[in-house]
């Protein structure tokens, strides 16, 4: 029996542009144990941006579609225009050059890039791409700590550990559990991820390419509740944060790809050359809350963005530890929250449709043809 896919809603609804159509099949992805698909990721990110982000913060933020990074690294079909004489970074940029025709990324403080590789979601956040160097200013929330407190923090084992050690601040039990999750994920990849591997220029598993970028800043610094008030200064610096709920391989190739994209984007938009190399824009993997199963990576990506919107980080000193960013218990209800939101918006749109005349119905019909998200 053929399964019937029904459009539940379009968000944002017409006449707004770039509406995302959510179907009953997409809603099923929110069932426990299922992987979130790109529609749910893009829908909820757009909802957060339009409904939950303060206007002053929205102006300085940009959220890319989940298709952006995939398209950036997607190899061209054989029948397309030959651009082989161009450097690889310019060929990649050409694939997405129209995605920013109405936006200047270098006027933004934060650019969010959801990424799916081999059936696993994680998040890249490009911070302060318009800055050429770190900017340090007095911390208005600074509260001097007692000598005993300062000594305890500075002498903590986590703060003393070097960034190149295998132990990144996790306990042996954490490492063992993480290995089990990663092994399980690899088994899933064999089933779901094989088809992606032949169509991407970004071979993140390639050791040679990764090693060109040295390593990411391995974030194992000590975090306490009062961290933001304990330092006399706050820092804003160009950096790329990689937030991954299944900490495993370094994502240095992703950072390298995004740096190269920014360099070409700057050249196209500004008409001049500017380096976004590792000396200018560091790559860093903050310690963030981790998933405790094989299927919640997408849910964590959504929560990372939501927490970033709710409680913007006041300072960007690296390394960064965000393990206490949000309570783990919040993740237990996240799928149901999003499902209830979709059903609530569906009811609202149905009521609006019933009180609307036929022109409105025609508009909704055409909106179903709008791509998942505007570029």
UniProtKB/TrEMBL annotation:
Chain positions covered by the region annotation Disordered: 148-179
Pfam families, A to Z: Peptidase_C48
GO biological process per UniProt: protein desumoylation; proteolysis; regulation of kinetochore assembly; regulation of spindle assembly
Biased composition (Polar residues): 148-157
GO cellular component annotations of the record: cytoplasm; nucleus
GO MF terms held by the record: SUMO-specific endopeptidase activity
Residues in Ubiquitin-like protease family profile domain copies: 20-308
The family this protein is said to belong to: Belongs to the peptidase C48 family.
Family matches, as SUPFAM superfamilies: Cysteine proteinases
Compositional bias of kind Basic and acidic residues: 161-171
Protein name: SUMO specific peptidase 6a
Keyword field: Hydrolase, Phosphoprotein, Protease, Ubl conjugation pathway
């Amino acid at each position: 029996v053929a399964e019937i896919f029904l459009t539940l809603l379009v968000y944002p609804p017409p006449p707004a542009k770039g509406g995302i159509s959510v179907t009953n099949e997409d809603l099923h992805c929110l069932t426990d144990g299922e992987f979130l698909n790109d529609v749910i990721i893009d829908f909820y990110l757009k909802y957060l941006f339009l409904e939950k982000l303060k206007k002053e913060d929205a102006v300085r933020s940009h959220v890319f579609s989940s298709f952006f990074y995939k398209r950036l690294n997607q190899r061209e079909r054989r029948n397309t225009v030959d651009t082989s004489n161009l450097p690889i970074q310019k060929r990649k940029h050409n694939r997405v050059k129209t995605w920013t025709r109405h936006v200047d990324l270098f006027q933004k403080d934060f650019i969010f890039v959801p990424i799916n590789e081999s059936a696993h979601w994680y998040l890249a956040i490009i911070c302060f791409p318009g800055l050429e160097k770190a900017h340090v200013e007095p911390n208005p929330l600074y509260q001097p700590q007692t000598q005993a407190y300062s000594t305890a923090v500075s002498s903590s084992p986590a703060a003393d550990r070097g960034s190149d050690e295998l132990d990144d601040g996790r306990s042996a039990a954490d490492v063992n559990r993480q290995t089990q999750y990663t092994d399980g994920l690899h088994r899933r990849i064999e089933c779901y991820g094989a088809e992606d591997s032949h169509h991407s220029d970004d071979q993140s598993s390639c050791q040679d390419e990764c090693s060109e970028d040295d390593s990411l800043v391995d974030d194992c610094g000590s975090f306490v509740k009062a961290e933001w008030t304990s330092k006399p200064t706050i820092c804003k610096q160009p950096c790329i944060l990689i937030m991954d709920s299944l900490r495993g391989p370094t994502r240095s190739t992703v950072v390298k790809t995004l740096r190269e994209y920014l360099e070409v984007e700057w050249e196209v938009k500004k008409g001049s050359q500017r380096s976004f190399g590792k000396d200018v824009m560091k790559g860093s993997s903050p310690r963030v809350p981790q998933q405790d199963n094989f299927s919640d990576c997408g849910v964590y990506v959504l929560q990372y963005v939501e927490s970033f919107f709710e409680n913007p980080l006041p300072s960007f000193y690296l390394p960064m530890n965000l393990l206490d960013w949000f309570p783990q218990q919040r993740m237990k209800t996240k799928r149901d929250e999003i499902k209830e939101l979709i059903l609530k918006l569906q009811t609202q749109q149905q009521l609006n449709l019933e009180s609307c005349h036929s022109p409105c119905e025609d508009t909704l019909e055409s909106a179903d043809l709008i791509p998942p998200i505007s570029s």
